Protein 1
Amino acid sequence: MGRWEPDAGDRLVRAALDLFDEQGYENTAVAQIAERAGLTKSTYFRHFRDKREVLFSGQDRLLELITDGIAGAPESAGALGAIEGALVAMAVTFTQDRWANGPRRLAVIAANDELRERDALKMAGFARTMKAGLLERGVPELDADVASELGVLALRRGYAEWLETGGDFAEVARRALEEVRGAAVGLEGAE
């Protein structure tokens, strides 16, 4: 493949995952990833800020989708209804490539403290964005805090289920949110 062929970002992700599988995250350099993808190091840095970001690409787009999904939820929707709007809006990014690479990506993250920390920061960013969108809708602060944390939990659970089953992420995320909602309601009776 030539340097100027399309899908450079996807090629870099696949090359990185291959190299992380072969020699480990810590032992892989950006230059190796670029070379494996048939690209230059400068092309790598046009797509990703650093080596970690090849595993976390698209966060800005996801934050936009969360914001738009919450803002676009019907006025009658409660806090969790607006969170559902965010999860459904995010579904456009859950492509076949993302599904195919997901288990490998999670394995690399699970094996590295720095990457687990980066993943936690990413999820905290999602929660902050959800909360901000809910506050904008007039949801009281504590309700916005709880709903955004439940939203992130539903996102994590939905993502894990989606990696196992494939299919429509929007439907999987809706089910995960319903399960989380049910668990939260069930806590009242557990005391």
Protein 2
Amino acid sequence: MDPADEPAAALIAALAARDETVAAAESLTAGLLCATLARVPGASAALRGGLVVYATELKTTLAGVDAGLLAEHGAVHPEVAAQLAEGARDRCGATWGLGLTGVAGPSAQDGAEPGTVHVGLAGPGTRTVRTLALSGDRDLIRTESVRVAFALLGEHLV
């Protein structure tokens, strides 16, 4: 069993028990979060869908991130993660939205070093961002970003 399956299964169960749903707008993880949730049998009870917004302009056109924010700060910024989360929630009609942006490496992007990740969460009465400074290769950074996103949402479901 993949190590991510257990937290994903717990998250799907918690959401389903509350009759709530989740959607994601993913940049650096490029769909990994949604794919990990979708491995769980019965995921359709809680997973609404997601947006892969790897290209910067798609963050605006698909997820509704403010173009001025992107022009001023670039794609790797805490407010971008928050707006990605809000966009996923709104566009997919979910209770909760997760937004992930950052640098998986190997090179810096928008002045941010590899391992810089921002995870946004939007939901009922909630709008928060967790900023990470991760180390490791691309796969590890992306996998850890998904784990942190699951943990962040899980903290708001207790």
